[in-house]
Amino acid sequence: MLLLELRHRAIIDGYVWFKVPGYVSEVVSVPAGATTVDAGLLRCGDANGDNVINVADVMAILRDRGEGGLRDIEVPSTDVNRDGVVDGHDLRTASLSSGEVGTALPNL
């Protein structure tokens, strides 16, 4: 579960849109007066940041497989599960989430 702290500018007509690296975007309804909101279940696997989980993400993970590790300061965005290394776990995550698309703000 991800709990988000809300800032006034993030709220648009009772909704907040957010994008976490490696995940597709989500839109959450914000109750009046709320200072935090439960973001719910995030969909992981967006390795290239295009807000869609598809074969392009799988190919990017395959390209970077083996990157990261204990000595690396920066881990690539293809480490979608954020465990510090691009490996089969990232590949499996993206493959299982293939077809997921980020949520857009509703027409208001």
For this entry, give a set of tags.
elongated, about 110 residues, about 20% helix, alpha+beta, 7 strands, three-stranded antiparallel β-sheet
Topology, element by element:
Layout: E1 3-5, E2 11-12, E3 15-18, E4 22-23, E5 26-29, E6 36-38, E7 44-46, H1 55-64, H2 88-96
Antiparallel strand pairs: 1-6, 2-3, 3-5, 4-7
The rounded distance between the terminal residues' Cα atoms is: 27 Å
What oligomeric assembly is this protein in? Answer: single chain
Nearest-angstrom radius of gyration? 15 Å
Helix content: 10-25%
Main beta-sheet strand count, sense and barrel state: 3 strands, antiparallel
Q: Please tell me what the overall shape is.
A: elongated
SSE pattern, N- to C-terminal: EEEEEEEHH
Strand order in space, largest sheet: 2-3-5
- Number of strand segments: 7
Put simply, the count of helices is: 2
Structural class, please? alpha+beta
**Which blocks of ≥5 consecutive residues have pLDDT under 50?**
none
Kindly report the average pLDDT value. Answer: 81
Strand content: 15-25%
Protein described:
With 108 residues, this protein is an alpha+beta fold. The chain has helices spanning 55-64, 88-96; strands at residues 3-5, 11-12, 15-18, 22-23, 26-29, 36-38, 44-46. 18% of the residues are buried. The strands form three sheets. Strands 2-3-5 form a three-stranded antiparallel β-sheet, with no helix packed on it. Strands 1-6 form a two-stranded antiparallel sheet. A two-stranded antiparallel ribbon has the order 4-7. The protein is built from two helices and seven strands; from the N terminus they run βββββββαα.
